[in-house]
Amino acid sequence: MTQRLSCDSLWLGADLVTLRDGRYQIIHDGALAVAEGKIAWAGPQAQLPAYNADTTTHFDGGIITPGFIDCHTHLMFGGDRSDEFEQRLNGVSYADIAANGGGILSTVRATRAATEQQLVESARQRLALLLAEGVTTVEIKSGYGLDIDSEVKMLRAIRQLAAQVPAQVVATCLAAHAVPPEYAGRADAWITTLSDQLLPQVAREQLADAVDAFCEHLAFSPAQVKTLFNTATQLGLPVKLHAEQLSALGGSALAARYHALSADHLEYLTEEDVQAMAASGTVAVLLPGAFYLPRETQRPPVELLRQYGVPMAIASDANPGTSPALSLRLMLNMACTLFRLTPEEALAGVTYHAAKALGQQASHGSLEVGKVADFVHWPIARPAELTYWLGGQLPCTTVYRGSVRHGTV
Ligand SMILES: [Zn+2]
Asked: From start to end of 267-374, where are the E strands?
């Protein structure tokens, strides 16, 4: 006698795109059962065992995917930089904008001036747009405070937002985003300050889930990142890295040596870097928005990443300068058109592999028994439509931890 399935809710009438191990793996006419916020059964409806369900939802076709995961954002910041966007299009150079106090330092000033509550509210409005497109997990980085108090303020604001919205919010400490103006020419001293003061506080107060840095000529060297990673590792904090965006410094290989969750951007990644990432299981997070807006021409080496089996995630990199992106689905399209990913790879990049980039592949990112019941119903015929339609908003029903998410946040 087969055991009777007992669940809180049952979802029928749609195809399941499971994304197990990052593959489409479509189950036609599927059934999904949820108990206590987790997936209790997933498979063809024809094989569904006898069951008790408190509620049953019948969809009229369509597909169900795992909830989308945006694994790299800078969604929290003061002000915006639309004025600089306009100035550049009117012929003002980056150098002149920077000389007039523009660029990242203008965001740092606005973020320092904002209260914790103001940061929560402005980030909430931007987050609402991401969530409307089926995002159930989002990572948000600090990195616009660039002094101890302002970085702590940002991280507390991210934690506060996390407690208020129907989505999982993961916090990352990116205090090594840029050299603070007060430390101009003394990047080593800022790294020492972070290692001695900020990171111990972050670990003690559990303000962040990981530590990130920007490894580039205009930010921090591999040696400085190494110092930061040593401290993070000693404190038990996982690491990740903005690497190889504008030049090849070997940051990705360094990150791989520290078993980083991910290395992100990667336009100038070398084959040696790819091999190191493959060996350590480090996810390659590709950010097509930050390639598109500044009209970059060097593409990340997708062929090499495929060849060595490095998992590829896609994220919005939502930030006020290089990628003011508020649509993860648009990033899926850009990953296909600009970076030549297949629709299957792109979809895996915002589900299974994005979960891995956050160290959560055991609990999130695919429709499998035992995983958190975060999923989305889309009234479309084929998963490739998620990467195909350009702009607009596809209607969808988002289920977060087993319950339908209604309204805005
Ligand atoms: Zn970034």
From this structure: 283-286, 312-314
Distances (CA, A) of 94 to 25, 246, 247, 294: 46, 15, 18, 11
Q: pLDDT for 203-230, tens place per residue?
A: 999 999 999 999 999 899 999 999 999 9
Task: Give the pairing type, strands 51-58 and 38-44.
Answer: unpaired
Three-class SS of residue 298?
coil
Q: Which of 267, 252, 338, 331 is nearest to 298 (CA)?
A: 267
Q: In what order do the strands lie in the sheet with 262-265?
A: 240-243, 262-265, 283-286, 312-314
Task: Determine the distance separating the centroid of ligand 1 and the alpha carbon of 45, expressed in angstroms.
Answer: 42
Bridge partners, 401 (sequence order): none
- Please give all residues whose CB falls under 5 A of ion ligand 1, grouped by chain where several chains appear: 317
Contact 315, 70 (CB under 8 A): yes
Vertex 343 angle, CA 124 and 285, to 5° = 55
The Cα–Cα gap between 138 and 162 comes to 10
Q: Which of 228, 135, 124 is nearest to 175 (CA)?
A: 228
Whether 97 shows a pLDDT value over 90: the answer reads: no
Specify the amino acid at residue 172: T
Q: Which residues, listed in sequence order, are joined to residue 7 by a DSSP beta bridge?
A: 53
H or E element in which residue 199 lies: helix 199-204
Distance of CA 288 to the CA centre of its chain: 13
* Spacing, Cα 345 to ligand 1 middle (Å): 21
Q: Which residues contact 111 (CB under 8 A, 6 or more apart)?
A: 77, 78, 79, 119, 144, 145, 150, 154
Which amino acid type is present at position 92?
V
Asked if 78 contacts 110 with a C-beta cutoff of 8 angstroms, the reply is yes
User: What is the CA(333)–ligand 1 centre distance, in A?
Assistant: 19
Q: Report helix, strand or coil for 76.
A: coil
Return left, alpha or beta for 126; rule: phi > 0 is left, psi -120 to 50 is alpha, else beta.
alpha
**Region of poorest pLDDT, from 31-35, 96-100, 138-142, 179-183:** 96-100
Would you list which residues are annotated within the binding site?
Answer: 72, 74, 81, 144, 177, 242, 245, 317, 319, 321-322
- Percent of residues in the chain assigned helix, strand, coil, to nearest 5: 35, 25, 40
Q: How far is the CA of 74 from the centre of ligand 1 (A)?
A: 6
Contact criterion met (CB below 8 Å) for 286 and 357: no
Q: State which amino acid sits at residue 394.
A: L
Show binding-site residues for 4-imidazolone-5-propanoate.
81, 144, 177, 245, 322
Phi and psi at 255, nearest 5°, equal: -60, -40
